[in-house]
Amino acid sequence: MIMKQYFAAAASAACLAAAMAAPVCAQEAPRLFTAEDVFELEWADEPEISPDGDRALYVRRSNDIMTDRTVSQVWIVDLAGTSHEPLLADGGSYRLPRWAPDGERIAYLKSASGRTGLYVHYLDSGRDALLGTFEEGPVNLAWSPDGSAIAFTMAVKGESEALVRAPKKPEGASWAEPPKVIDRARYRSNGEGFLELAYDHVFVIPADGGTARQLTSGDFNHGGQLSFTPDGREILFSANRNAGWELQSREADIFSVDVATGALRQLTAEAGVEESPAVSPDGGLVAYLRTGNEPEPFLPTDVYLMDRSGGNARNLTPDLDRRAGDVQWLGNREIAFTYQNRGENNVGTVRTDGRRSTLVEGIGGTTVGRPYVSGTYDAGRGGALVYTKGSAQRPADLYSYRGGRTRRLTSLNEDLLAQRDLGEVRSFTYASSLDGLEVQGWMITPPGYVEGQAYPLILEIHGGPHLAYGPHFSAELQRMAAEGYVVVYDNHRGSIGYGSEFANLLKYKYSSPDDFADHMSAVDWAIDNGVADPQNLFIAGGSAGGIATAYGVGLTNRFNAAVAAKPVINWVSKVLTADSYIGQIANQFPGPPWEHLDHYWERSPLSLVGNVETPTMLITGEVDYRTPISETEQFYQALQLRRIPSAMVRIPGTSHGIAARPSLLNAKTDYTLAWFEKYRTDSGTPAEESAPRSRSDLEKSAAPAGPANGGRGKD
Q1: pLDDT in tens, 81-107
Q2: Angle between helix 662-678 and helix 475-482 axes, rounded to 10 deg
Q3: What gap in Å lies between CA 68 and CA 662, rounded to an integer?
Q4: Pairing of strands 314-315, 438-445
Q5: pLDDT at residue 27, rounded to an integer
Q6: What pLDDT digit, counting tens, does each position of 471-517 carry?
C-alpha cells in the first residue's frame, strides 16, 4: 500500500506536468503488468464472521517494498456492505484474529523482536491488552465458550541426555562451537532448518491476563484445530501418541483433555489420520476429518461424525472421493467443509443424515504467485458464510453468502489492476496422446492477442504432483503473458480434484513418460489450434513441476529452453537428504532405495541427462530441505560436463518457497524470462505458415541408463 500511494502521487504529478500537451492523461490506456506491480497487490485471507452474524474480520495482506515482506493487517467489514474499516493496521503484521463469544473482543497474535505476543483487542474502547509474549509462537487460537480463557498450542522444549561431558572451559577461553548430536528421525524441516528438541502442547490462558497453563504432557505433538465442548470443560485436538510415532507418516487420533485436571481421553483409534475435531453447538456430536493410511500417493479425506463419547463413528461423505478440509458446523445438523473439484475450491455441506450439497463454488485467490487452488472461509449463525474469492484477473476479495444471496464486500485491487492490460485466461480440455485420457488445461493469451497469430509458448507445470492449478490470478504467469508469451498449464494425471483413480495414475511413476505425454499433448493442442509458434516452445515448473521439466528435456528436444525450479534430480539422494523422506518412501515408492535402486533411478531426471540438448536453467534456494540444492548441483554439473548451455541460480538464505518474498517472486520470473528471451527466435509467422518441429523424430527414447550396469531398471 506504501507503493500505491507513491505511484499515485507520481502519476498525479506526471499528469499535471503534461496537462498542456495531454489533457486526457487521466484516461490513458491501461499498461502492462510489471514487476513493480507485484509490490502493489493486496488480497483477503482468514475471514471470521462475528457471533451475531452481522460483521466479519479478515486479514488484508499486502507487499511492503521497503521491507520486502508480505504484511498482514486486520480489517472489519459489515456484511450488509455499509462499512469497511481498518482494525489493526498500524504498520505491524498481525495473525489469527479470533472473535470472542460476546462479539466485543478479538484475540490476535503480533510478532516483534523474535517473540510473539498474544493480545486481546476491546472493540468499544479500542484498547489492546497483552496477555503474554512467547519465544515459541502460539498457534490454533480458540476461545472458551464463556469467553474467560483462550486455548492455543505451542512448542515446549524437550530434554535429552548428553552423550559425553565436555571438560570445563576456563574463564575467558574461546573454544570452537560444540558438536551437535542428532538421534531423532524428525530432526530437520524445510523453512525451519535443524529443529530443537521440542513438542507441541495445548495451553490455556485467562482472557483478562494471567499465566498460561500447559494441559498436555509427554514427548508427543498435540495440536491442529482446537474445539471446546459447550460447557468449556474439555478441549478436543488430534495427536499421534503411539510409540514410534516419528516413523509413522499417516497416523493421528482425536483426544480430549480436561481443562481442570489435564486428564486425557482418547476418542478415536482407527488406522490413519483423524483430525480437525469440531464439537456441535449442542455438544452431542463431533465432526472431524479422516484419511486412511494405505500406502498410496493420494488418499481422499472424508468428513466423519461420532458421538461426543467417541462411539458410533460414521463416514458422511463416502462418495465424495476428494480431499475434504476445514469442517465447521452450520447449526446442530449440518456441517460445512471444503473440497477441490476440477481446478476450483468449493464449500460443501453435509447433514448428519448424510445428505450432501454444494453451498459455494470457487473460493480462492489467496496464492498470488502461481494459480494454485486455494481459499479460506468461515461459517456463522443461520448458515451465513464469509469467504475469499478471486478470479483469473484478480487476487482474493472478501465475499459473503447468506439467505441464498452472495455479496462482494471488498475490491482491493481495482485501483491497480483495472488500469492494467492483463492476459485473458481460457479453459480447454484435450485427450492425452498416451491413452486418450481427458485432461483439463488453461491458456493465458498475451495482452493484444490476435486470433490466428502464433505466439511463443511457455508450458508451466504445477508442483505436488498431487496439487492443482485452476483459473486463478497468477502474478508470475501474468508477467510472462505481458512479455508476449502464450502460457499453458494443465492438471495432468496425478493432480487432485478429479478423484482418487486420476490422482493415483502416477503411482510409482513420477516423473515418467506418462505425465510427459499429458504435457506435450497440451502443447500440441495449442499448436494445432493456431495459438503457439512451434519454433518457440519453452518449459518451466517448480518442485514437482521442476522434476517434470528436468525429466521432460531428457525425453524431447522440442523446447528452445527450460527452467527447472527446485527440482528433484536423483531420487536416491533426494529421499535420503530431504525432510519429507519418511512419508515419501512409504507412500510414493515400492520400498526404500536400497531395495529398489533401479526403480528410483528410472524415475530420476539424472538417468536421462545423457539425452539432454535443451539449454536449461535451474533455480533453487540454498537452504531448501525439501528438494535440496544438492539435487540442482547434480544436474547442473552433469550438463556442464556435457557442454549443454546451463545456468544455476542460487537463492541465498531461502528454503523451498523461493518466491515467498516479493523481490524473489520477481527475481524468479525475471531470470526465467531472461533465459527464455536468450533462446527465443524471431519467426513471428502466422499460425498457418509455421512448420512445427517434428513430434516423432525428435522425441527421445524414454529408457534411462541404469545406475550400475548401463541398462534400464527392471522394476
Answers
A1: 899 999 999 878 899 999 999 999 999
A2: 40
A3: 6
A4: unpaired
A5: 53
A6: 999 999 999 999 999 999 999 999 999 999 999 999 999 999 999 99
Set of cell numbers at residue 631: 539435487
Helical (H) or strand (E) element with 205: strand 198-206
Please name the residue that has the C-alpha cell 486428564.
263
pTM: 0.92
Please, are residues 63 and 38 in contact by the beta-carbon 8 Å criterion? yes
Instruction: Report d(CA 324, CA 496) in Å as an integer.
Output: 11
CB of 91 closer than 8 Å to CB of 72? no
Which residues make Cβ contacts (< 8 Å) with residue 514, sequence separation at least 6? 434, 493, 505, 506
Per-residue pLDDT, averaged over 210-225, amounts to 96
Query: Which position has the grid cell 490470478?
Result: 473
pLDDT tens string 283-303: 999 999 999 999 999 999 999
CA dist 281 and 122 (Å) reads 25
pLDDT tens-digit map of 536-545 = 999 999 999 9
State the pairing for strand pair 455-461/486-491.
parallel
Angle among Cα 246, 248, 251 to the nearest 5 degrees reads 115
Rama region for 531: left / alpha / beta (φ>0; ψ in -120 to 50; rest): alpha
Indicate the helix (H) or strand (E) that contains 502. helix 500-503
Q: What is the residue type of 643? A: R
Rounded Cα gap, residues 565 and 622, in angstroms: 12
d(CA 516, CA 520): 6
Crossing angle of helices 544-552 and 513-528, rounded to 10°? 80
**Could you tell me which of 61, 54, 49, 131 has the C-alpha nearest to residue 95?**
61
| pLDDT (mean) for 211-228 | 96
